[in-house]
Design brief:
mainly alpha; two-stranded antiparallel ribbon; 2 strands
Amino acid sequence: MMKPQGKLQTGYQVSQAGDCRVVQEPPPQHELIREDQSLVRRLLARQENAWVEFVARYDRLVQSRIRAACRETGHTAGLAETLSEISAEVYAALLEQDMKTLRSYGGRSRLSTWLAVIVRRLALRHICRLSRLASDVTLDESVPLAGRDENCQRQQRLQLVAEARQQLSPDDRQLLRLFYDESKSYKEIAQQLSISVNTVGPKLDRARQRLRKLMEGKVS
């Protein structure tokens, strides 16, 4: 008579043939968190291959959270450029200031849960800055934007900003990054670039003008 299939005890299962097979059960939450903390410690110690392991494990999550933030804000135009820019920003934020952000991981939740919150926050901040720059760069009224819908035109403008910004000179990109991305004051920008405070405004205006011309060239 065949023995019915069923569990003998935790981790074991009896097959219809009567053999006992080990069934792998997921490790408890606290063990997973300890593994996450171990990875973070290796990252902070700059151990070899720790960063490669981190990116391989969490890059799909990073991309997914960025896409979700873009859908949340309706920023779906130029998604490829946005994904690339925000991904670079996320990884830079994790590494900058001696990995200050990573050091804030306290192990109260899974590293993936914590990272999802960080990525969403950075993505929304990036999109907000992009919108601010787009509003500061006014296109010539004679240049039509595709689509009559206001949201459609807003998305096109954001896409134009993202694409045109990559074509600016390194100096212009740095200036816009300091002012819009890092929200630095004129005084802080002047100190970092070793220029006078009085020249920051004119340089910023010229950078915006060059950005606007590049944008207009894309839609003309």
